[in-house]
Design a protein that fits this description.
By secondary structure, this protein is an all-alpha fold. It has 2 helices and no strands. The chain is rod-shaped.
Length: 63
């Protein structure tokens, strides 16, 4: 997966995780809230992976 795809997928997972947490909180479903937190964290990690790929590419391009 390319850096842009990682960032897009990451943002999507982050948003979906936040929504899942909100729904879990609204219906008092702690399991859903927890899964939302995990999904949000996964999204943030995917975004960081995309940013790291960009940074490596920039260094290689400058070499």
């Amino acid at each position: 997966m390319g850096s842009t795809a990682d960032k897009v997928a990451g943002k999507s997972n982050e948003i979906a995780g936040k929504v899942r947490q909100g729904v879990g909180d609204a219906v008092d479903n702690k399991e859903m809230e927890a899964k939302g937190e995990v999904q949000e964290a996964k999204g943030k990690a995917q975004q960081a992976k995309g940013e790291a790929k960009d940074a490596v590419k920039n260094v290689v391009d400058k070499a």
